[in-house]
Amino acid sequence: MLYSSAFHRLAGITQIVRAGELDIFHTRQQHTYKVAQIGRRLAEDRIRKQPTAAALQGLHPEVVEAACLAHDLGHPPFGHAAEAELDRLVRNPSLSGGGDEADADTDGYEGNAQTFRILTKLAVRYGKGIPGLDLTRATLAATLKYPWLRDHNDPKKKSKWSAYACDAEQFEWARHGCREGFKTAEAELMDWADDIAYSVHDLEDFHRVGIIPWGDIVSDRLGGGIIEGAIEGWKKDPDFPQDAKSRMDAALSRFIRKLTLFPTITSEVYDGSREQRRQLRNFSSVLIGQYVRAAVLNGTLAGSSVFIEPDAADEVRLLKCFARHYVIGLPALHAQQYGQKRVVRDLFQIFLTEGKAAKFGLFPKRLRYIWEDRTNEKNARLAADCVASLTENEAYQLHHRLTGTNSGIVLDPIVR
């Protein structure tokens, strides 16, 4: 996993703020390393404290760590904005200015499903007879955060899924012996590790650049905007609880009590002083330690394999909303994403048009095998595979060259 080009690419992929914009922000690869470290800690903690349940669930720290390392391989350049754009284009290729209904794949595009596709088909390690990375069944199953195919008639399976129909054979192989509709214990821990890293480590970045007004949050000068945002996002969950408001209020109160133990965070503008860094690191460590201990294995084979203590789950849900409230809503970010979606759309159209005509002269050599090794997959799927294989810098540079805005250097292939 660590040695694959797909993993290497994550160093040039957005976490929330564009990769390379400022060194202070996480890339998708740095996020992945932290998820893997937390995931392994989660598994080791449960094996030590619940050996019987761990044996029943077949829990292995190496499998959790491997799944964590793999979990974001399917993120396209520019993150979730491009993911939504590719989903739209794969389902309706004519929106790109090229393609028609015959090229479309109703499964669209989803980062988790693309991860599984990379692991089982697109990654290159062996010869043609063994596509993908040839991972174990347990490892592949542990990457399946949403263990089902897309179903447009089921709200639960319409917006999030972990494999495309064209990869159903590999999906069935990976899920053989698993309980229908339930993630494996290792997939549950991978998912929780991802939530912890996203909710804690990304907030560190935003604190350093002064985006989040902790002082106003602690003094309650902001009103209920954060709470309302968290509840609104929660409503998309089929299991949305009636007491969501009181739970989010309680979660915010608990978080504020923890935050006030580290006064430099709430009372000082961050300038990187030793004491500020010490308190920020300790605060993150306190949160991560509590959330790691909040995962409990199910001692039976009925229901979910892992339970997360409600207080911890509520706090993480709230913290994830901080990023949406203060960062993702920034007008400058929306303007940036508008342009990024155009880059994705243009590249998709070029790959689709040229690929359908079997004109591979302008294709980077690294991407030609995607079309040359095709089976019965739709043209739009293959075009999306090409776009999703690029780093953000590669996408920008390739777009400049293919649209004529900057011809670049002839001896520079851009994509290697």
Q: SSE order in H/E notation?
A: HHHHHHHHHHHHHHHEEHHHHH
Total tally of structural domains: 2
Percent helix, as a range, is: 55-70%
Number of helical stretches of at least 4 residues? 20
**Overall body shape:** globular
Can you tell me the CATH superfamily of the largest domain?
A: Hypothetical protein af1432
From the 3D structure, determine the CATH topology of the largest domain.
Hypothetical protein af1432
- The structural class is mainly alpha
Can you offer a commentary on this structure?
The chain is an all-alpha fold. It has two domains: 249 residues, Orthogonal Bundle (Hypothetical protein af1432), CATH 1.10.3210.10; 139 residues, no CATH class. Helices cover 58% and strands 1% of the residues. It is built from 20 helices and two strands. A two-stranded antiparallel ribbon has the order 1-2. The model has no long low-confidence stretch (mean pLDDT 90).
Summarize the structure.
The chain is mainly α and 416 residues long. 58% of the residues lie in helices and 1% in strands.
List the helices and strands and how they pair.
Layout: H1 5-9, H2 28-49, H3 51-57, H4 61-70, H5 80-91, H6 111-122, H7 137-142, H8 155-158, H9 168-174, H10 185-208, H11 214-218, H12 225-234, H13 244-259, H14 263-267, H15 274-293, E1 295-297, E2 306-308, H16 310-328, H17 331-356, H18 365-372, H19 379-388, H20 392-403
Antiparallel strand pairs: 1-2
Helix pairs in contact: 2-3, 2-4, 2-10, 4-10, 5-17, 5-19, 10-15, 10-16, 12-13, 12-16, 13-16, 17-19, 17-20
